[in-house]
Amino acid sequence: GEKLFISKRTAEGHRKTLIEKFEARNTAALVVKAIKDGWVELKQL
Q: Distance between CA atoms of 27 and 16, rounded to whole angstroms?
């Protein structure tokens, strides 16, 4: 949240929305999907 200048609560809300939207079981599954689909690269993490 700090890098985007948003509160922790806002970041958690966005994470929850993404998990629901992409039908991920949890944050780890969302991260795996993001890597597999090319949204982020491991070197960015």
A: 8
Question: Which of 8, 43, 9, 14 lies closest to 30 in space, CA to CA?
Answer: 14
Q: Which domain holds residue 39?
A: 8-44
In whole angstroms, give the CA distance from residue 10 to residue 16: 10
Domain presence at residue 18: yes
Overall domain count for the chain: 1
Digit-by-digit pLDDT tens for the chain (45 residues) are 788 899 999 999 999 999 999 999 999 999 999 999 999 988 866
**Which pLDDT score, from 0 to 100, does residue 45 have?**
61
